[in-house]
Amino acid sequence: MTPLLKFKPVYQERVWGGRGLESFLGRKLPGSTPIGESWELVDRVEAQSLVEGGPWAGRSLRELMATHGAELMGPHWPKERPFPILVKWLDCRERLSLQVHPPASIAAKLGGEPKTENWYVARAEPGAAVLAGLKPGVDAAAFREALKDNSAESLVHRLPTQGGDSLLIHSGVMHAIDGGNMILEIQQNSDTTYRVYDWGRVGLDGKPRAMHVEQSMASLEANTAAAPSLVRNGEKTAVLAQCREFRITRHRLARGEGLTFNACEQARILSVVGGRLAAGETTLTLGDNALLPFGGKFGFIAVEDAQVLVTDGFSSLEKAKA
Q1: Residue/partner pairs of 33-38 with CB below 8 Å, 24 or more apart
Q2: Virtual CA dihedral for 200, 202, 100, 156, nearest 10 degrees?
Q3: DSSP strand E in 45-179: where?
Q4: pLDDT (tens digit, 9 = 90+) per residue, 290-309?
Q5: Per UniProt, where does Zn(2+) bind (predicted)?
């Protein structure tokens, strides 16, 4: 029987991070430095998820993709192809840089990878917001001029946030996250970020962080996506994001209600953003992210009122051949 897979988090120091994941998720963080990101599910050369518990404990996601790819992703997934999704928790104690990810049409030319991502705001402090998308009439040339007099922020939409909000950011869209947001980010498997402005901040080493103005301008010029808008939906079940790369559906479950996923349909990721779920002897709590492999059938019962995100649509035959 193909098991549900939970992984050990990979924590990342970030100058804009904090220690909020300890209190919010009830975790013990390493050291005392600011932790901005917890990589929950990752298959990259520089970072690998390791299975936590179960028959495959200690094995890396890359190893499992190579040896059990058909069970994880379906019979047509090439064993050498990395897992296509990266899942992170973000503790945004301070504002992140103003940045952009390269569209697929020019990513390789710029030496990077496209990165479409979705932000689910699990918690937002009063006054928190995100910046996303250039305002009407603003092009790359106008934005470049605004960088010279430090007025670029005024050219980007500012969207106040609250818990439960969701925002899909396509590659090529200028964006930043304000301080005070706790976010679950579900994205393409990419780590290419072009910073264009960092509010005069220095990094953890005391030096200004690298900027990538020319790559950012090229990404803006190649962008074909419209300015994003926040999704606020109170329905019991709601699709929060749907794009070529993935789909995210939120389910609100009352205590005792359940979710069932049949075997041999598609791989899925289940993320708990509120409450607790039980799957046999396994309990999933706030912050947990589990991979539900293609080859397994899984049933969950809400131990208490719960909210979960289900990410799918990333393991089709077409994507396997891409």
Answers
A1: 33/204, 34/93, 34/204, 35/11, 35/91, 36/12, 36/90, 36/91, 36/92, 36/93, 37/11, 37/12, 37/88, 37/89, 37/90, 37/91, 38/9, 38/10, 38/11, 38/12, 38/88, 38/89, 38/91
A2: -30
A3: 47-48, 85-92, 98-100, 117-124, 129-134, 156-160, 166-169, 175-177
A4: 999 999 999 999 999 999 99
A5: 101, 117, 175
Residue with tokens 């050369």: 45
Catalytic residues: 195
Apex 217 CA angle, 211 and 223, nearest 5? 125
d(CA 175, CA 227): 10
The answer to whether 35 touches 77, Cβ cutoff 8 Å, is no
Cα separations in angstroms, 307 against 123, 174, 232: 13, 29, 14
pTM above 0.70, yes or no: yes
The 10s digit of each residue's pLDDT in 136-161 is 999 999 999 999 999 999 999 999 99
Residue 286 DSSP one-character state: T
* Ordered structural domains, the chain, with CATH: 5-222 (2.60.120.10), 237-321 (2.60.120.10)
Annotated binding site for Zn(2+): 101, 117, 175
